[in-house]
Amino acid sequence: MGLSLEESGVSAAVAVAWACTLGLFTLACMCALPSAYLAVLLSLLLIGPFLFALWVLLFAYGHFPASNTETEETFKRTTSFEKALKEQPGAFLSDATVGGTFLYRVAKLLNYRLACWFHGFEVKGVENLPPPGKGALLISMHSTHNADILVACTGLHEATGGRAPRGLLHRIVFMFHPYTRYMGMVPGQRHTAKHLIQQGYLTCVLPGGAEEAMTGHDDAYNLHPRWKDRRGFAHVAQDADADIIPVFVKNAEEMRFSPIFYVCNRLGLTRAYTRLVDKRIPGISWVLKQAGLGTWFCLSWLGIPVPVKVTMHIGKPISKRENDSVDDIAERSRAALQAMIHEHQPHGHQYLPGLRERFARAKSA
């Protein structure tokens, strides 16, 4: 059992020290922002060639054919599935194949194993997942930093005894990072997702997309308005005749602190950018959106790790009712996920509760 702030002097001191450190660091970045940008630029120039060489190697690795441990008889063959298999053969690698690759083992070490030590990461609600051989569509919110994605996916692999979730990745991102198929990522297409679920895979999607990721800390735990009109995930679940399972990672946003994102939020730049894109000015809004996506994706990896307690909660399955439309399924799923967020993150975006929970000690007997 955790202690309150008053009952745990050591934990409170550590939490306050971290909060003060982050505050001072933010203040320093705000006062010396041009110098900070210059330092980042110089660092990128120094390590850029090495990163580019690594990307080239990984890009080539992503195109190497994998030896699939699935037998031909394992798949439930249909004409539609044969078409999907021909278009995306790498999407249907077996869990054993994906989980056994060198890249996946490295990703699991650097994400799940490290998160267990640094964040006290744990998974709750595994009993809500379907049994092996039966697929489902898992949905969740999108953080501003992406660090929680591989932690959650590799954590599910560990918690389920070897089921490697398939994450629906943006098709353009996948084009430049084909090696991510060895981490369980596949291009985000409806028919591919449908067949993955029908073949028994756990398939994951973040319907809020990059728009939700770029909303910023101010609205981190309120699902983006685009959830109101995005119905693709509900179509997939309906076509696959599968359940939708909401998943929420408690303190996902607090896992990383980005001084640049913080400053942009405080200055109102994030809200101004969102308003301009939402106006859908012909030509201009599209260019702004693409430029913003590229900028956000690059900067999202520059966050500072914060040792908050991180827990992944797997919610109750949402099944299609007899008279449910696609809109009904999507809205019930959205409402269920938002309810989970309010239940497990009632204080919203705050670092101190997560730090206190992480460092709280059990009462001595």
Structure, explained:
The protein has 365 residues and is an alpha/beta fold. The chain has a domain at 72-258 and 306-351: Glycerol-3-phosphate (1)-acyltransferase (3-Layer(aba) Sandwich). The protein has helices at residues 9-31, 33-62, 79-87, 95-100, 102-119, 147-159, 171-176, 190-198, 209-213, 232-240, 259-266, 269-278, 284-299, 326-344, 351-359, and strands spanning 122-124, 136-139, 166-169, 185-187, 202-205, 244-250, 256-257, 304-305, 311-314. It has a seven-stranded mixed β-sheet, with helices on both faces. Helix 1 (9-31) packs across helix 11 and helix 1 packs antiparallel against helix 15. The longest helix has 30 residues, at 33-62. The relative contact order is 0.15.
Low-confidence stretches: 1-8
Radius of gyration: 21 Å
The biggest beta sheet is recorded as:
7 strands, mixed
Given the helix and strand composition, which structural class is it? alpha/beta
Mean pLDDT: 82
CATH architecture of the domain at 72-258 and 306-351: 3-Layer(aba) Sandwich
> What would you call the shape?
globular
Strand order of the largest sheet: 1-9-6-2-5-3-4
Name the CATH class of the domain at 72-258 and 306-351: Alpha Beta
- What count of helical segments does DSSP give? 15
Count of β-strands: 9
| Alpha carbon gap, first and last residue | 11 Å
Provide the β-strand percentage band. Answer: 5-15%
What is the CATH topology descriptor of the domain at 72-258 and 306-351? Glycerol-3-phosphate (1)-acyltransferase
Helices and strands, in order, run as HHHHHEEHEHEHEHHEEHHHEEHH
Describe this structure in a few short sentences.
By secondary structure, the protein is an alpha/beta fold.
